[in-house]
Write a structure and sequence with these properties.
With 178 residues, the protein is mostly helical. 74% of the residues lie in helices and 0% in strands. The protein has helices spanning 3-32, 36-62, 82-109, 113-143, 147-158, 165-168. It is elongated and about 55 Å long.
């Protein structure tokens, strides 16, 4: 693996772990507000981001590179509203998308086909991440700060399933039939 690509992928590990930390901070806010469905959504989001970091971690080692972990910035912990949190979520996902696109462009410039194929999954994932945040924001704008609408959305978000490790890593579950 090219050293510049290795360095940039290590930086992406840091960004993915920060994303996990940020979403966990948002989950804590929702738990403190007794909005368990919103908290559930953010906890699952935090798990997904940590698994994204692990995908980069594994890929770097699979390519013969070295992983270097840096300090993780403290995430914001106080928020004004549910809508503000999802606006921040969308902004953050756009930031992540920009960084994934930059990694993809670097892989193209270096003619690094293995990295291009690996990064295609993240390009697709970022479309989903931004859409999820936009969909929730649209619903929040529709219901405003009305208690009943917020509680209905909270219930809807509580149904977000906790992903399995295999699904987060893009692997098929192991066959348990023997």
């Amino acid at each position: 693996m090219d050293k510049k690509m290795e360095k940039e992928m290590n930086a992406q590990i840091n960004r993915e772990i920060f994303s996990s930390y940020l979403y966990l901070s948002m989950a804590a806010y929702f738990d403190a507000e007794n909005l368990g469905g919103f908290a559930q959504w953010m906890k699952v989001q935090a798990m997904e981001e940590m698994m994204h970091a692990m995908k980069f971690y594994t890929f770097i080692f699979d390519r013969g590179g070295s992983v270097t972990l840096d300090a993780i910035e403290k995430p914001e912990g106080t928020f004004k509203s549910i809508q503000q949190i999802f606006e921040k979520t969308l902004d953050h996902e756009k930031f992540v998308t920009k960084n994934i696109n930059n990694l993809y462009a670097l892989a193209q410039k270096q003619n690094d086909h293995a990295s291009l194929i690996f990064l295609e999954w993240f390009v697709t994932e970022q479309v989903e991440e931004e859409k999820n945040a936009m969909d929730i924001l649209a619903k929040l704008k529709y219901v405003g700060d009305k208690g009943q609408g917020i509680l209905m959305l909270d219930k809807e978000l509580s149904a977000r399933p906790v992903p399995t490790l295999a699904s987060l890593l893009g692997q098929a579950p192991a066959d348990t039939a023997a």
